[in-house]
Target: Adenosylmethionine-8-amino-7-oxononanoate aminotransferase
Amino acid sequence: MPEPATAAAELLALDRRHVWHPYGPMPGSAAPLLVRSASGVRLRLAEPAEGRQELVDGMASWWSAVHGYNHPVLNAAAREQVARMSHVMFGGLTHEPGVRLAARLARLAPGDLEHVFFADSGSVAVEVALKMCLQYWSSLGRPAKRRLLTWRGGYHGDTWHAMSVCDPEGGMHRLWSGALPRQVFAEAPPPGFDAPPDEGYAASLRELVARHAAELAAVIVEPVVQGAGGMRFHSPAYLRVLREACDAHGVLLVFDEIATGFGRTGALFAAEHAGVTPDVMCLGKALTGGYLTLAATLCTPRVAEGISRGEPPVLAHGPTFMGNPLATAVAGASLDLLLDGDWAGEVKRIESGLRAGLAPARGLRGVRDVRVLGAIGVIQLDHEVDLPAATRAAVANGVWLRPFRDLIYTMPPYVTPDEDVARIAHAALAAAEAA
Model:
């Protein structure tokens, strides 16, 4: 049943007065939609919007709810763990769901990423990764190696050091450019997952790593897909170039797989497209199937042993809710669902549906590019999105999308049926026309 009108109005009034929503002003410039419940791939609204009481979620709650909502297996895992313990500190104590999840991630990850440090969120996982790299070189008596190299167009989170390796000009963090640590930026990789590698660009990457090697602790990039920085796809060949350059010049390599991990690009981890292993890898988002906040930073024995030889001989980090039993138990159940099912086939099916459904956007006025990779579909405009107009158009077509900058994109749950993939694509076309 719909929420009583008075209750919905009261909640939205309280929301406007007290709740500061992400990437928005306070108070908000537009009222958010009030969600009453969610099941499968549908969000049920407390009050109709644009004539719609239900919306197909084309965003998987910022790319995390890969199994959809209200899943009986994940619900059961949460209930069973709550009955045992919802939380216990990870300092000096441990527990089965955390241990088993760490061991499983180490088995699944490429190469010898054997050691797992749990964190609260993706941004914190990046902070931990960067701290690992800086502390590694300090422990080895090389404290001058404290800068980081990345390429433009990237996004690694909203916490302090993570912001320093996001795009310094086109990104949302340019406000802090004078206060953040100054890192080394390469040009953004040439676009196109299937495009032949640009040898000139590859040479420039090698030269930049070589030139700054004495001061570089690490290179950090999003492999294959640059997410919130622009939803751009690039050739896996550039990851191989970075691996070779880092090995040649004594620099660590970090892959931020928070958005790409667990199948989103068609490989379980995007690093697999390149056949290389980083020294440190960050995971998050889909790790718990969108149920609870949890992230992980994995590293090789080389990194862990290097830190342990230093002073202090410990990684100086420890979130209060690190390794939360409830989150790690649900994450284990989410991995069961993913790996026991045909996740690769489902992602391929969604990829085919998005390719067909978004193709007509190429003929729309104001569209610069249309691209699809795995369960990711993007319409890029030649102008800034009119966010209210685009959102209204998508909602009127029964779909929740969250455009940003010049992009209308979708990253739906893997369980989205074909008819809803088609609906999402149709809504994205309508949003592009309205934007």
Q: What stands out?
A: Residues 89 and 320 are 7 Å apart (CA to CA). The first strand starts at residue 35 and ends at 39. The two ends are 33 Å apart (CA to CA).
